[in-house]
Design goal:
This is TatD-related deoxyribonuclease. Pfam families: TatD_DNase. Keywords: Metal-binding. This protein has one domain: Alpha-Beta Barrel (TIM Barrel), CATH 3.20.20. α4 packs parallel to α5 and α8 crosses α9. By secondary structure, the chain is of the alpha/beta class. The protein is built from 10 helices and 8 strands. The C terminus is likely disordered. It binds zinc ion (ZN). The site of zinc ion has 6 residues, from loops.
């Protein structure tokens, strides 16, 4: 079976937290070996840590997301405390297996409500910390790629890697970010780009920098409904899809998921749909993309302190084999 690595998701999200053990099991049956679970605020860091202790397949990531520290605009939780950075550092001291994320900058409809210079300052502190600790960092960027590039240039390069998660930036910026140590991670959001634009951008990403992710419970791929996994009890689903926690074996519908309500939850097993789509855009086989994206993620997450024995094996394997391509 193909091995997959979900390089960015939020299995601690309150919308799915009670179902996480089952979601992990189903995704594992679909081939997912590791999940990089990204905390977004001081409130959910303890949940992420706990999840990584219960599930060896979970790699914990701690960071302050740009939406999650302004009380007036927050999506999930309250504003950051004056001690947030000290607390974050304590999390890394106590959890050497953790990476940095989710952090970032956002000038989209959500991010615009939050002072941008403050966003940049909070991101700067966390990128500097990632560099100092020699850990990869998972970065969210919406309509602010120029600002992000400038900031990364002023701090970088990042030998431990920076994951540009759900990357939707331009093809032209790919080489500039790559020089600084960036990896490009693709989710169901890629399906919102025009196919020719997505292809042009994907072709610029070197094969040793491609990652796949779900960003679950967000970013439901706009794939055929019959090929998707849904989350049991998701009230935004139409009645007839309520039982579809695994894709049915016979195809009955020709509709794609863009007909579903925007808030329909994404299941981590839907990384298989992301794999299909990105492979088709690149014109390579699913098996080839699964293999190279898995090896890229395994290499990226094989930093000092990370425990899972399989990752250590991969690291030894890669160091004897050398880099892909
Ligand atoms: Zn995310």
């Amino acid at each position: 079976m193909m091995k997959l690595f979900d390089a960015h998701c939020h299995l601690q999200d309150p919308r799915i937290l009670s179902k996480t053990p089952q979601l992990i099991k189903t995704a594992q049956e679909a081939g997912v070996v590791f999940f990089a679970v990204n905390g977004v605020s001081e409130q959910d860091w303890p949940l992420v840590r706990e999840m990584s202790e219960t599930h060896p397949s979970v790699i914990p990531c701690f960071g302050l997301h740009p939406w999650n520290w302004d009380l007036s605009t927050c999506r999930f939780v309250a504003e950051r405390s004056p001690n947030w950075f000290k607390t974050l550092k304590q999390y890394f001291d106590a959890t050497p297996s953790a990476a940095v994320g989710e952090i970032g900058v956002d000038k989209g409809s959500q991010g615009r409500k939050i002072d941008f210079s403050e966003q940049v300052e909070v991101l700067r502190q966390q990128l500097e910390l990632a560099k100092e600790l020699n850990k990869p960092a998972s970065v969210h960027c919406v309509r602010a790629f120029g600002d992000l590039l400038q900031l990364m240039k002023s701090i970088g390069p990042f030998p431990a890697g920076v994951i540009l998660h759900s990357y939707l930036g331009s093809a032209e910026m790919v080489p500039e970010f790559s020089k600084l140590g960036a990896y490009f991670s693709f989710s169901g959001f890629l399906m919102s780009l025009k196919a020719n634009k997505a292809k042009k951008m994907l072709k610029m990403v070197s094969s040793d920098r491609i990652l796949l992710e779900t960003d679950a419970p967000d970013a439901l791929p706009k794939s055929n409904i019959d090929s998707l996994f849904f989350i049991d009890g998701d009230t935004s689903l139409p009645e007839d899809l309520h039982g579809q926690t695994t894709p049915p074996s016979t195809s009955g519908s020709s509709l794609d998921a863009s007909v579903l309500p925007k808030e329909t939850l994404n299941h981590p097993a839907n990384i298989c749909s992301v794999l299909d789509y990105v492979a088709s855009m690149l014109g390579i086989s699913k098996e080839e993309l699964a293999e190279l994206s898995y090896q890229n993620a395994a290499r990226l997450f094989s930093y000092e302190g990370l425990g899972p024995p399989m990752l250590i094996c991969e690291k030894v394997f890669l160091s004897t084999k050398g880099r892909l391509n």
